[in-house]
Design a protein that fits this description.
HIT family, subunit A, binds zinc ion, 10 helices, alpha+beta, single chain, globular, 11 strands
């Protein structure tokens, strides 16, 4: 596996020369997790990952974004961070705040807004080259902490992330024999969702893609809310959770220990009801 090997090498190399990355990956080995099950067909893992606070708490307000230096643009990246060029316009980077094993971020070189419609084919091309990974996309109002600079993410497969539709939240599933077929099917789903949210520049969504049995799987999580009310609550009602693709699929990230200890099945059900867009 060419690209997967290159990524393994990138991690070995970067862990040696970038102490912060090495440390954050070792912390991930000891990360606390707890699991909740709904029958035999849906389980959610809750992860306590305090390093994610910057992303979870990110101010994605338009005015704030315009006033800050973009942390994805090359000139603002950590000097130690090196990458692998992909399709001559992306760069594959080790994520210094990992949730998954081999967590990578794949930004476009150019500073262009987070929009998936014309990039789903490139996302699937990456997926095809990374059969052991899930690749994911967070829409600008659905968990992306840099809505102004297009980027994908990926990490090694975890069963919770490949779960499809269930009674807790919606997931539209596409299974394609080829990238071309998948793009066509994605476009149909995209148009349907666009019709539901004509006021948005992009329908609110998260996308996860992965290879399974030589097929291209695309899971689309339609959204109706960026952050649940618990995010903004104060005191004992507060849960600092800002759902993105991984949370929607089945790995919920908590950044405060009190939230990790406190969160229960009812909270999870309630958060999904608030942020997931039901599909009739
Ligand atoms: Zn940028």
């Amino acid at each position: 596996m060419g690209l997967q090997n290159d990524i393994e090498n990138l991690f070995s190399f970067q862990k040696n020369e970038w102490p912060k990355l090495n440390e954050s990956i070792s912390i991930l080995d000891e990360v606390r997790e707890k699991q909740f099950n709904w029958g035999d067909n849906f389980s959610v893992k809750v992860q306590f990952n305090p390093a994610r606070i910057t992303s979870t708490g990110a101010n994605t307000d338009y005015r704030h974004i315009n006033g800050r230096p973009c942390f994805i643009c090359e000139q603002n990246r950590p000097t130690e961070q090196k990458g692998i060029v992909f399709l001559e316009k992306y760069i594959i980077l080790c994520n210094p705040f990992p949730i998954l094993r081999n967590h990578i971020t794949i930004p476009l070189h150019s500073h262009v807004p987070q929009r998936i419609r014309n990039k789903i084919g490139e996302m699937l091309t990456l997926t095809e080259k990374l059969p052991d990974y899930v690749v994911f996309y967070n829409g600008p109002k659905s968990g992306a902490s840099a809505p102004d600079h297009f980027h994908l993410q990926a990490g090694l497969k975890v069963p919770e992330l490949m779960q499809g539709d269930n009674e807790l939240r919606s997931c539209l599933m596409i299974e394609g024999e080829s990238i071309t077929e998948s793009i066509e099917l994605f476009e149909e789903v995209y148009q349907y969702l666009r019709y539901q949210q004509p006021e948005e520049e992009e329908p609110m969504l998260n996308v996860i893609t992965f290879m399974e049995d030589n097929k291209y799987k695309t899971h689309i999580f339609p959204r109706k809310l960026h952050r649940p009310k618990q995010f903004y609550a104060e005191g004992s009602k507060k849960l600092l959770i800002s759902p993105g693709a991984l949370d929607m699929a089945g790995i919920i990230i908590t950044v405060r220990e009190e939230d990790f200890d406190k969160i229960d099945k009812q909270d999870i059900e309630d958060i999904y009801v608030q942020v997931s867009l039901p599909i009739m």
